[in-house]
Amino acid sequence: MPVCWVGRGVRSDCPQPQPRGCPCGRGRWRRGTASLSVSRCECLPGYSGKLCEVDNDDCVAHRCRHGAQCVDAVNGYTCLCPQGFSGLLCEHPPPMVLLQTSPCDQYECQNGAQCIVVQQEPTCRCPPGFAGPRCEKLITVNFVGKDSYVELASAKVRPQANISLQVATDKDNGILLYKGDNDPLALELYQGHVRLVYDSLSSPPTTVYSVETVNDGQFHSVELVMLNQTLNLVVDKGAPKSLGKLQKQPAVGINSPLYLGGIPTSTGLSALRQGADRPLGGFHGCIHEVRINNELQDFKALPPQSLGVSPGCKSCTVCKHGLCRAVEKDSVVCECHPGWTGPLCDQEALDPCLGHSCNHGKCVRTGPSYVCKCAEGYGGALCDHKNDSASACSAFKCHHGQCHVSDRGEPYCLCQPGFGGEHCEQENPCLGEVVREVIRRQKGYASCATASKVPVVECRGGCGPQCCLPTRSKRRKYAFQCTDGSSFVEEVERHLECGCRPCA
After folding, report:
1. Tens-place pLDDT, residues 88-122
2. Was domain 3-55 assigned CATH 3.10.20?
3. Which Cys pairs does UniProt list as disulfide-bonded (predicted)?
4. pLDDT tens track for 257-275
C-alpha cells in the first residue's frame, strides 16, 4: 500500500483507493519545503520513474557465474545455476569426477582403422592396403579394370635407381611397370614369369625372364635395379637376371612417364608393342609396397587415372611376422613365422628346447612348447621309461608293417607305404595327398625354415609289385629364415602328381 504525506510532519497510511493528492505508485509523495520548492515522488528500492511506475531490471549488472540464468526480483535478482553448480552466484563448480579413459581416446586412426591398446600404448590396426603409425598411407592397390593404371612420380627416380614391389595374381600376362621416353623399359607378366624388356631405340629390344613363376595368387617380390649401365631383375630374392652391359645407363627423367599396372591407351609405346607375344592388356591383381630408392610410395596422393583401381586387396597386414588365417567373416588369427610368437606375431620367441628334460630322446619344438621324440626302446613323456617291446609285440601281428610300443606300453603297427588298418592289412590306392608344411634345413648350428608353409603332394598307397611314386614334379625357389638371423634362397622340388611306377 503506498505511503502518503497528508500534512506537514504528519505520516499516515493511505487507504485504498488513494486519496486525491497522492500520485506515487511505488513511493511516497514529498511536498515542497523551504529548501525544496518542487514536490516529487521518493521511490521505494527497486523502482524508478517520475511516479515510481518503473520496476528496475536488476539483472542488467548481475554477477551470476558459469552461465547461470538471472531472474529479476524486487530490488534484487536470483541466479538459476546449471546442473552441478551451487552458491548464491553459482560460483561453486561440481565436485571433480575422474573418468576412466583409454589411450585410444585421444589417438585418431585414419582410413577406418581400429585403435587397439598394446602394452598401454595406442596402436592402429590398419585395414587391408593401408600402413603407417595412423594408417595414413595407402600402400596396396587392386587392379581389376581393363584399362586401369596408376601414374607414379618419376622425378623421384635418379639415374641409379632401385624400384621394388610385391605382386599377387593368378593371371598369366599383364603389364606391371612401364617407363616411357627415349629408352623405354617394361616389367611384364608373361606366361606366369616376370619379363624385363629394355629398348634403347638404336637396337632391337633386350629381354630377360625370371626362372620363378608368380601367378599362384601369393605375393612375390619383384625388384628392378639400374646401376652401372646394367639392368637387373630379382624375383623373390633369388639370383639376379641381368641384361648385360648396355650402351648407356637407363634413366628416368623428370618428365618421363612411369606407369604401374597398365598404360594409357592413347600413348604410343613402340617398344611395348613389338612382337605378337607382347601383353597389351593391363595387370589384374594386387600390387603392394612399391618402393622407389627405398621410399615407400603413398597411392593416396596418386589418384588412379581410370576406373578399376581400388585400395587394398583383402590381404592381411596385422600379423607382423606371420600369416593371417580367417576364422570368421571379420576375424583372423596369426600363424607366426619360426622364432616369433604373440597374438600379432610381434614378440621374439625363446627356444623352448633350451634346457629340455628329454632323457632318452630328442626335443622337438611345437610352437611355444616341445615334445620328446623317444629313442628306440624308451617311452614316456620325458622318454624316461624303458619299454619291453618284445613281450608287448609278441601277440600283436603287423601284416605289412612293424610293431612298436607306445608311451603307455601298448603295441601298435607302423605300416609300410601303401598299407593301412590296425594291423596294416589294408592296401591303400596310390593317391597324392596335398599337405602344407614348413620345409626345414640345418645350416651348421642354425635351424632354417621357409617363411610360410609350402603345399606339397605326398605319394601314399599300394601298387602291388610296383611303388607309389611321383609322376610329375616342379622346382621352385623358396626363401629360408635361420635362427642366427641369416637367410638364403634354395630351389625345392615339389611333387604334383602320384602314380604306380616300377620301384627304383
Report:
1. 999 998 876 555 678 888 899 998 899 998 888 89
2. no
3. 81-90, 126-135, 286-313, 353-363, 374-383, 393-403, 415-424
4. 788 888 876 655 544 544 4
The count of C-alpha atoms lying within 13 angstroms of the C-alpha of 165, restricted to the half-sphere facing its C-beta, is 25
- The rounded distance, in Å, linking the Cα atoms of 168 and 286 is 5
Does the structural domain 430-504 have CATH classification 2.10.90.10?
Answer: yes
Whether the pLDDT of residue 286 is over 80: the answer is yes
Three-state SS for 297? Answer: coil
Question: What nine digits make up the cell of 26?
Answer: 511505488
Same CATH fold, 430-504 and 139-311?
Answer: no
Architecture label for domain 139-311: Sandwich (2.60)
Q: Where are the domains of the chain?
A: 3-55, 139-311, 430-504
Contacts of 181 (CB under 8 A, 6+ apart): 252, 253, 255, 256, 257
Query: Considering only CA atoms, which of 253, 246, 72, 240 is closest in space to residue 161?
Result: 253
Local structure of residue 271 (DSSP, 8 states): G
Determine whether 373 is exposed, middle or buried from the number of CB atoms within 10 Å of its CB (0-12, 13-18, 19+). Answer: exposed
Please give the C-alpha separations between residue 101 and each of 95, 96, 104, 118, 438, in angstroms, as whole numbers. 18, 15, 8, 15, 44
CA distance 26 to 462: 121
Please compute the mean of the pLDDT values over residues 486-495 and round it to a whole number. Answer: 86
What is the signed CA dihedral for 40, 45, 51, 55, rounded to 10 degrees? 160
d(C-alpha 61, C-alpha 87), whole Å: 18
- DSSP strands (E only) in 281-344: 285-292, 295-296, 309-311, 322-328, 331-336, 340-341
**57 to each of 62, 184, 274, how far by Cα in Å?**
10, 86, 93
Displacement of CA 210 from its chain's centroid (Å):
30
pTM over 0.70: no
Helix (H) or strand (E) holding 198: strand 193-198
